[in-house]
């Protein structure tokens, strides 16, 4: 499993894979904790209409998770990896065309 992650993420060491997985775990846990605090702060409750709660949930989760991912990645010395990870994530989210290596050289 670690070998597949190393290949997919283009990294060499098992230690770096372990650090990256720890960063993902901390970020996910912290996001859940902060989401509750933010929802309490802005008054979103279980009784809030789904049509309001769902878009707020998506915006809060995406924002908090992605900011925390960069912060925690920085603290663990993996900012470069997570910056590239975020760029790929948002390019997929925004449906941008992936550049080929030839296009990269020509730009």
Features:
mainly alpha, elongated, 107 residues, 0% strand
Question: How would you sum up this structure, described in words?
Answer:
- This protein has 5 helices and no strands.
- 8% of the residues are buried.
- The protein has 107 residues and is mainly α.
- The termini are far apart.
- The longest helix has 29 residues.
Secondary-structure element series:
HHHHH
Straight-line distance between termini: 36 Å
Give the biggest beta sheet. none
Unreliable residue runs? none
Mean pLDDT across the residues is: 87
Beta content? under 5%
Task: Compute the number of strand runs.
Answer: 0
Gross morphology: elongated
In angstroms, what is the radius of gyration?
Answer: 17 Å
Q: Output the structural class.
A: mainly alpha
Number of helices: 5
Determine the fraction of residues in helical runs and give it as a percent range.
over 70%
Structure described in brief:
It contains five helices and no strands. It is mainly α and 107 residues long. Helix 2 runs antiparallel to helix 3 and helix 3 runs antiparallel to helix 4.
């Amino acid at each position: 499993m670690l070998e597949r992650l190393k290949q997919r993420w283009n990294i060499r060491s098992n230690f770096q894979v372990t650090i990256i997985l720890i960063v993902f775990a901390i970020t996910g846990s912290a996001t859940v904790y902060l989401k509750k605090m933010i929802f309490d702060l802005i008054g979103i409750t279980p009784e809030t209409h789904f049509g309001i709660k769902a878009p707020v949930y998506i915006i809060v989760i995406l924002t908090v998770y992605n900011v925390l991912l960069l912060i925690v990645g920085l603290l663990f010395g993996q900012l470069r990896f997570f910056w590239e990870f975020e760029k790929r994530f948002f390019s997929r989210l925004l449906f941008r065309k992936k550049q080929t290596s030839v296009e990269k050289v020509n730009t």
